[in-house]
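assembly run, all chains below
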Amino acid sequence: MSSENFQQSRTPPIATTGLLGWIRLNLFSSWFNSILTILVIYLLYQILVPFLNWSIFAADFTHNYLGQQIIDRTFCTRVMDPEIGGACWAIIFVRFYQFIYGFYPVEEVWRVNIVYSLLVIAVAPLLIEKFPLRKYFLYFTLIFPIIAYFLLAGGFGLAHVSTKDWGGLLVTLVLGFTGIALAFPLGIVLALGRRSNLPVISMVCTLFIEFIRGVPLITLLFFGMVMLPLFLPEGITLDGLVRCLIAVTLFQGAYMAEVIRGGLQAIPQGQYEAAQSVGLSYWQMNRKIILPQAIRITIPSIVNTSIGLFKDTTLVLIVGQLDLLGIGRAVLAAQTWMGLSIEVYVFVAVVFIIFTFSMSRYSLYLEKKLKTGINMGAD
Amino acid sequence: MSESSIISLQNVNKWFGDFHVLQDVNLEVKKKERIVVCGPSGSGKSTMIRCINRLEEHQEGKIVVDGIELTGNLKNIDSVRKEVGMVFQQFNLFPHLSVKENITLAPIWVKKMPKSEAEELAMKQLEIVKIPEQANKFPGQLSGGQQQRVAIARSLAMNPNIMLFDEPTSALDPEMIKEVLDVMVDLAEGGMTMIVVTHEMGFAKTVANRMVFMDEGRIVEEAPPDKFFNNPESDRTKLFLSQILNH
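ok done. output:
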C-alpha cells in the first residue's frame, strides 16, 4: 500500500456555533456585510470612546482632579482646565434633592419618600398578574391616589405643602401617572361614545376629540392658565398644578380615545352579534367581550401614546411648573452652576429613558403573554 | 296569529337602502316545531331569522316571539333574546375566553348565576355536545366542528325556548358537518323549537316538520318535507331543488 492511497486530511468545517460562529454568520456573512460591520465598529469607536471618556473616565463626580470637594462650578475640573476635564456630575449630586423633590420642605420630605415607596406597591400588582394576594393589593391601588394626595399636599394633621414647592421628578411623576391613569378610562368612554348609535353622544364625543387633538398641548396648558380662571365662579381658584393635570388628562384622553377606537374597529361584527344574542347588555358586552379584545390589540399603541404623554409633561415648564426638566433649567440659571447644561440635560434624558424604556419593555412582555388568546377562530 | 304560535311574523318588510330584502313575509311557528329554511343566496333567509332576535330591525309588519312584540323597546328586546338562542355560520366564539368561560359568561352576567353553578352547567352542556374534554382550551385551539358545538353549548346554557341556526355547517369542512348535525338532531329530538337555515337536505328530511323556501325576499313555498321534496308546487322551488339535489 503506497502513501498516495491515503486520504488527504480535510480542512476543519467552518464553525457555525459559539461566539465565533455567531460573528461569522451575522457580521461577516458576505463582503458587503463585512464592510458594513467594520464601518459601524469604526463609527461606534469614534463616538463611544470620547463619550465614555467624557462621561466617566475624565469626569468629576464629587471631587475634582485636585481632590477638592466640588461645591460650585469653579471647582469643576473642566472649568479650571478645559484640556483635561470631563463631565462635572457634581451639579447633579449637589442639587440632587431639587431634582427629586423640588422645593419640598426638608423636614416634610419623608412624606414624599413614603409616596414613592407606596407607588411601587400600588403599581406592581397592577402590572404583575401573579402578584401574591393581587386582589387585595388592587384595592390598595384604587385608594392609593387619595392617600398620595393627602400625604403630598397635607391634611389630617400633616402640614400643608403648596404645590408651588413641588418640583422635579415629583411633578413629572404626578403629572405622568395621574395623566395616564385618568386618560385611560376617559379614552374608553370617549371611544365608545364616538361609536354610539345616539347621534348627540357621538357628536359631542367626536367634537371633543377633534378639538382637543387638533390643538397643541402647550395651547391647552396656556388655556388652563389664562382662560380657565375666567370660567370659574368668583372666589374659587384652581391650583396651577391641577390646571396642568386637567390639560394633560384631556389631551391624553383624546389621543387614547382614538387609539382605542382603532382597536374597536378591528373587532368583527360577529362578536357584537354573539354577545347580544346571549343576552348581554351594552355595558356587559363592551366590558366582557369587546374592550378586552380591543385593548389587547392596541397595547403597543396605548403604550406608545403613554410614553408620548410622559415626555410631554415637560411642557408644563412653559407655564411655570418646575418638573424634572424645569428644575434642571432652574439649577442652570443659578450663577453658581452656569455653563454645565450638558450634564443636566444628559441626566434628565437618562431619567426619562429609564421610565420610558421600562414602559416599552413591559408592553413587549404583555404582548407576548397575551398572544395565545388573540388567535381569532380556526382560520 | 293562531294561539299556539311561539313565533309569528306578519307582513314583515325590510329594506337595506333601496334593496327590498324582506317582502311581506308571513310565518307562524308552533312550539316544538322544526322549520328548515332554504333558498338561493341573497333570498333573505338569514335576514329573516336575524329579525327574530332583533339582530336586524324590520321596518314594517309585526314580529311576536313568545307573546312579546319586537319594537324599539329595549326591555322587550332583552326578554326576547333570553328566550332565543342563536348559532352563527362563523361560530363567533369569544376568542379571548376559554371554552368554559365562553359558556359561563352569559349565565353569570345575565342570569346572575353563582360561578360554581354556572361551571357545572357549562360542563353539562359540553357533555351534551360531546366535547367535555375541551373545556379549558381556547376557541383558536379547536377544529371548526368543535367550535360550532361550543357555540351551540353556549346558546343552550341560557336555557332558550327557541334556537335559531344561521347556516351552521356552511363554514365547516365536510367531515365535520356530521358531528354538528348530530348534535342538532339530538336537540330536535329533545323537543326544542328550531328554525334552521341550511342547505343540508338530508338533515331537513329527517328533522324538519316544515320546509320554507325563500326567493328574492319572499316565502315562495311552505310545505311538509315529504310534499316539498317529492311534489313541490312552484317552478322556482323545482328549479332550486333540481340544482341542489343533483350537484
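The CA atoms of residues 94 and 102 of chain B lie 6 Å apart.

The beta strands of chain B are 5-16, 19-30, 34-38, 60-65, 68-69, 84-87, 162-166, 193-197, 210-215, 218-223.

not gonna interpret more than that til we talk
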